[in-house]
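Milestone M4 deliverable, item 7.
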Amino acid sequence: MLIPLLLSCNSAASGTIQIVTGEETDTFTQTPVPTNIIVEVAGEDAGAWTTLVTAPYPTDTIDLGNQDQDAVASLGVEATDSNGNELIFGASVPLQYGALDGETLPIFVQRVGQNARLSNFPSGDTRQAPLLSILSDRFLIVSGGLESATSLTTEIYDFAQFNLLTPAPTMPIVPASIAVTSTIGLIVDTAGDGWYYDYSGSTSNYTFTAPDVAGGQAIYDPSGVYVFIVGATRTTGTPTQAVLEINTTDTSNATYETGNLSWLSLADARLGASATYVAPYGLVVAGGSPTAPGVEVIAVLSSATVGSELMYPPDPSSGAGMTVLDESGNILLAGGLLPSGADAGVRAITLGSCGTPCTPTYWGPNNGALPVPVTLGFVFPLNPAYAFLVGSEPSTSQAPGLTHTFTLTTAGATEVPTKVAHTNASAIESPMGSVIFYGGANGEIESFTPAPQGLVADAGVDGG
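Output delivered:
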């Protein structure tokens, strides 16, 4: 379906939107079928969606009228039924209207509340537990993974054109952790060697040694100032207290290409912990220890360099997903396995007043139990009482770590079927506001979107 778009109020510049549905063939034919197409716009500051035009479906063309060619925005396409219920949604990456002059912009749309496969990712890449990163609000970087044969190769997928970039770059080391700032990735291997890799020029530079954070997740401050690699979030190896802080605004040391590096320390050594960043509290780490208090915070904005314990009971779970629910310091932990192999459940904690001692609030019956216990969790907020979880069963010698996805509410968890079987998939929020998950499925990437205003923007979790 093609939608001509006039891009400027003072020129004849024009471009075209093409609606694409990836590998799914029934997006527009499922019951109920859509009756209207709505084209919306959101400003570059991730504001609310504003309707540009509504047209009956099916239709051949929709004229969006004149737009400021210098404006930067995301375009959204929504399809509704006769009662106004939203059935289908998709959005573009942030773009400047003028850049579309004479071009065709594909927008991937999918049934809301379902998973759907994107298009044009090559088959054959079966790596599990890859490291996923977003580059320049446009590209998905797929690096590392469990398979040594593919771990040096990095795939880059373009969300603006839904194509893989070729040739694939090759890393100087096998990434165990990666933090991306601007066009540069700071990568750490299992030996703790740290390199910078510039994706814009495919250049690399050895810089430092960081042995105690290797394998840890990258956690991003929503303001864009700080990035952390938290060693305690790794699920294999030894417990660690080490945290690498990157201050992207501190350029005092030219050796550090993405900003000055500092070493922080948790109060307690942990393994398999969960982490996120909560403004103005700081870096929050939970779980991963059978003896330490369940939660601790490093108050970065107060120049703290060591974690302060909150009096939650010890949380020995490993591999839970963690995310911020709202601006009041409410956090969700989802999934993770206890030492017995049992499910740790879906539970909310608060950084505010929490009682003495503090206790988690479980979402759903049976201490927030999931339909299937999972580890390697990635959880994303949809609103303060609604989230989406990607996690995988523990791998055994008899069975791979089959990936499951769930919607989570305070009433409990509901599984959302994947379109193909994934094993040990990783997940990340895309520049379009959807959740992308990938791993162990012969090169298939899947996407989940709940609604045009579903995901809470800049929740501070990248791949965790």
